[in-house]
Structure formats: C-alpha cells, structure tokens
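Page 42, continued from yesterday. The earlier attempt failed because a stray header line got pasted into the input along with the sequence. Redoing it now with the clean sequence only.
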Amino acid sequence: MGGARINRLVSQTAPNRYLTASLGLLAVGLFAVAYIVFSLLTPNFDPAHDFISKLGAQGQPYAVWWNTIGFLVVGMFLSAFGLLFGRLIGDASIGLSLAVSGFGFAVAALPTDLARVDSFLSKAHYVSICISLGGWCFGMARIRQVASLAPQIRRNAGIAAVLLLMPILCRFANLISLPTTHRLLLAVVFGWIAVTSIGLMLTRPQGGKQSEPAK
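This time it went through. Structure tokens are written below.
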C-alpha cells in the first residue's frame, strides 16, 4: 500500500519528479566539481587532511568563489530539492527538515577565520554546519517513521543514518581525524541525495500500472 502511494505520487507529477531529481544531482555534482577545482587552485590546501572550510576561510585567494559556489549555491539547490521532495512524497515535515538542512549549508558561506576560531563569523559558520546536519538527520528519522512511504525509501534512509554514525564513532575512538570525519559525513549526506535522485529518475509507470523504482 505504501509503495502504491509513493509511486502514484511520483508518476502523476513527472515534471516535479524530474525537477526534484535534477536539483539533487545538480547539488551533488556542483559540490564535487567545485571541491576538486578549488582544492587544486588553493595553495597549501591538502584535499585529504585540511578542513573543507579552509577553502572559504578569510585570506584564501578563492574564498569568495568557493563560498558562493560550494556553499551558497549548492545549499540553495539542496533547499529546493528538500522542499520538492517533501511535497512529492506528501510530507511537509520531511520537506521542511531537508530545506532547513540546505539553508544551513548555504549559510556556511559565511567565511571562517582560521586565526580566530572564536570570532562571530567562525562560530556562525560552525553553527550553520550543525544546523544543516541536524535538519538532515531529522528528515531521515521522519522518513523512517512514515509507514506509508515505499519500503525502499525508508530503507535507504535507515542505511544512511547508520552510515552517518560510523565516522562519528570512529572519531570518538580516535581512529580518524576531525577533517576526515567531516568529509565522510558529507559523503553520506550527498550519497543519499544522489541515490534518492537517481531513484526518482528511474521510477516509471509500466504497462498501465505503477512500477516500483528501478533497482
């Protein structure tokens, strides 16, 4: 019954479905490309060990560009994706949670000050990241609670939540560095967005009946 509901929603609103998926994939792709490009352009930046926020820190040569593209624009895409996804599955709280997550990511465009981590901008930057992650976690929890959603959607949310805990636990055990933890957390979030977006793209009616999302 839940699968029929979600498939009926996504099949009857194909333009919104494709728009939602496109926004999600665009956010993931833009962030990945921007990170690679600005990592190569920024001197003394170690893509494997430095905080990603260093790319947009005060004094960095491409800080404005990175903060605008890597945080602000990507965050706006994430917010739009969240709102449309919530509307698509008929749950406003999920859409709002994911939109707040994207908004927090966009606000992270405020440049941090590496020399003064206790400055207002640095604190605002860190708080925005926490808000972004918190909104996403609440969205995943809500997806797991909505029994009417398709099992695949609920399962993917559960897997993402478990994967999110792994780098946090590894960090507590002092197995990985804090910058590595941040990268893994972002990988889980963006990975869920990519998988969900591809699933929306591949969901289609078949033979006059609604089919399950292609696997």
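Notes: The chain is about 70% helix and 0% strand.
Reminder to self: strip header lines before submitting.
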